[in-house]
Amino acid sequence: MKNKKLFLIIIIFILNLTTFLGCLFLYSEIKDQREAVKERINSVKLLEEKSQNVKLLSSQTEDIAINKEKLESAFLKEENIIGFIEKLESIGKEVNVSVKIFSAEIGKGSDSPRLRINLKGTFQNIFGYITLLENLPYQISFDSLNLVKKVSGDEKIGDWDSDIEISIISFLSKKND
After folding, report:
1. Per-residue pLDDT tens over the stretch 64-123
2. What is the pTM of this model?
3. Among 3, 17, 37, 139, which residue has the least CB neighbours within 10 Å?
4. Domain ranges in the chain?
5. Domain 78-176 CATH class label
6. What is the rounded distance in angstroms from the CA atom of residue 121 to the CA atom of residue 48?
């Protein structure tokens, strides 16, 4: 009987030892799995942050492109000077003013193009033309402005004559590109 008790104690001890070692093994596996899950969670968080940064960068790039377009539209480029002169003439037609461009100096002395313009029409129309000229999207400097009322000759009474000299300050020449 004594042998049976001893045998039973040994078997219980071996079972307890096996159970303990099994639990220890399972605990080690669970710990390893927990570390792997933490690493995956951290990598997912990192990928989410990168994705948000890419979205933010994309949005900022679009904003920069829009702002660049707005900024470039405020500057007259050298290749657009002919279109600008045509715009000056079309403004004259809109307000019923005769417009003659006497000279256009580009790149002489300074980087700003200078235009000499002669206007003929009523005082109100010439004043309207000058106002529209000021409101163009470019920075324009009026270097001189002479306004004279015609009183005789071939001109109709009430007609005015104006000589304007302007500089386009917001100008980009090809050498600035």
Report:
1. 999 888 888 788 888 888 888 899 999 999 999 999 998 888 765 557 888 999 999 999
2. 0.61
3. 3
4. 1-73, 78-176
5. alpha beta
6. 67
- Residue-by-residue DSSP string for the chain: -HHHHHHHHHHHHHHHHHHHHHHHHHHHHHHHHHHHHHHHHHHHHHHHHHHHHHHHHHHHHHHHHHHHHHHHHTSEEGGGHHHHHHHHHHHHHHTT-EEEEEEEE-SSSSSS-EEEEEEEE-HHHHHHHHHHHHTSSS-EEEEEEEEEE--STTSPTT-EEEEEEEEESSEE-GGG-
- Enter the tokens of residue 121: 């029409």
> Two tokens at 135?
């409101």
